[in-house]
Structures are given as C-alpha cells and as structure tokens.
Amino acid sequence: MKNDQDRWTEIEHLPEWDEEFYDVYTAKKFGKWVMLKTLKPDLRDKPEMQAMIEQEFDVRYNLAHPNIVMINDFEDVPGVGRCIITDDVYGDSLAKLLREGKVTAAHIDKLRHQLVSALEYIQDNHLAHHPLRPENIIFTENIGNLKLIDVGFEQRKNLTPHDTSEDIYNYGMVIKQVLDHTGTDDPTLRRVADRCLDRDPKKRFSDMQQLHLALENRRSQRLYISVIVFLLLMVAIVLWLSSSWSPRPPEGLDSRLSTPVEQTSSALPPTR
Question: Can you count the helices (H) and strands (E) in the chain?
C-alpha cells in the first residue's frame, strides 16, 4: 500500500493561477499530472470558507464540457491541505499571453467559439461564478485548447437577468482587451464586444445564444452573398440563352431536328 508521500510528488505552487480565495498547485498523483485547488492559508480554519469549497466541489463534480476543467476528487494533500483535484490543464493564461504579446489568431478563434460555448453551458446549468477574467482562461500547453478554471461555486434554480448580463459584459471586456492589445482588425468581433459593453444592459445581447449568432454573422453573410450571386448568375444564363445573342445550332441542323414525325414514319418499310 503506497503512503501519501508516494501518492503525491512534484507539488508546485502556481501563483499566477491563484483565485480570490484559493491557491492553485500542479502535482503528480501516482505519477499522473493533476491540478490542486485549496483555500488560502488564512482562510482554512473558517467554517464558512470550508463550506464554500465543499459546495464548489459538489456543484462542479458532475459538470462535463470540453472547455471547462473537470473535477476528479476532494481530499487532503500533505503540506497543502484539503484540495479540489482537477484534470491537468497546465498551460498559459490569456493574461500571460497578452502580457508577452503571444496571442495568435488561433487563440482569438477559440475565444470566439470555445469560450462562448463554455459560458453558454455554465448559464444552462444555472451556475453562479466569479467574473470572467483573462486570468481564468487557460490555453493548454500542448494542444492549445481553451479551458475555464473558475466556473461556478453555486448552482441556483435560475440565474437572474443580471447574472446573464454580467457574463455578457465580462465577455465583451475580455474580447476588447484582446483586440486592443493585438491590434486585430475584426469588425464583427469589435461590434459584438461594443454591444456587450453597452452601458444599458437592455441593449446588450439577451443571452449567450444570441451572442453566438452575432459572432457567426460574418460567416452567415458570406453564405447569403454566395447564394445571391449564384441565383443571379443562373438568371443571367437563362436570359442569355433566350436572347438573340445566344449561340445557334449549325445550318441545316434545325431542319433535320424539325422533320415531321409523319415523314420519318413514311420512310420506314411497311409492316406485314
């Protein structure tokens, strides 16, 4: 039977990943990389904080989305404390990529699709969570997949319009920050971010599905234009073929094609 020292190795604190109430670590459990999330030392003895981390584990344990970090267990880790154990999502936060000028078009595309999908899933499951920030958006080290690491501490019967609007506002803040830092010229993304950040919540997108459709606007417009161009081309071809400029069959072919059926029939030998 392996003891705790054999079970847990290479434990390392990741200060950049720390959350408001939690410290975050990377470690190996039985040789497999995982992440650890534990209360900050000055909060560990407070009953309300202990109840909070237990509640977060209960809320997130059954979540399953490719762009949300998955929770595996809740246990004591030597030298660290009571921890939520998650899948290994080691990589770079969006905040770090922005600071180092390493945000690429691929990152922006994932913010456009994967991040919206994750937020929509969170809202569909009525999860209250801390505000979306570049610090809790992670791009994994090898594949570069987007993962949210702070996605909910309470599951409610329903989210309020304020909760939904706040998610949309914070998404706009993230996108605006990315566009400003990278100098990316994307009119659709800029327009979506501006609407997300409208001072009047009633003028923002009503939900994540509406936001998603707005982000797909450019692709939808291209398809619409392509269909219109194709139809116009077909009409032009029909008009051209029926006009005096259309090509005519070779001389004599018209008369052969228009030979009466009776003449053709009379040329056949009589039947017995």
Answer: 10, 10
Dist. CA 40–CA 259, nearest whole Å: 97
Whole-angstrom distance, CA of residue 260 vs CA of residue 256 = 9
Under 8 Å between Cβ of 79 and 11 = yes
Q: Per residue in 222-242, pLDDT tens?
A: 544 555 666 777 766 767 567
- Return d(Cα 22, Cα 75) in angstroms, integer: 15
CB 74 within 8 A of CB 86: no
Residue 134's nearest CA partner among 186, 180, 86, 96 is 96
Per the CB < 8 A criterion, the answer to whether 91 and 37 are in contact is no
> Quick one: angle between helices 187-196 and 208-215, nearest 10?
160
Cα 178 to Cα 211: distance, rounded to the nearest angstrom: 17
Sign, CA torsion 242/244/250/253: positive
The pLDDT of residue 261: 47
- Give, to the nearest 10 degrees, the angle between helix 105-124 and helix 208-215: 160
pLDDT of 235 reads: 66
Q: What is the pLDDT of residue 228?
A: 64
As a whole number of angstroms, the distance between CA 95 and CA 19 comes to 13
pLDDT tens-digit readout, 154-213:
899 999 999 999 999 999 999 999 999 999 999 999 999 999 999 999 999 999 999 999
Give the three-class secondary structure for 33. strand
Q: What angle do CA 150, 175, 221 make, to 5 degrees?
A: 125
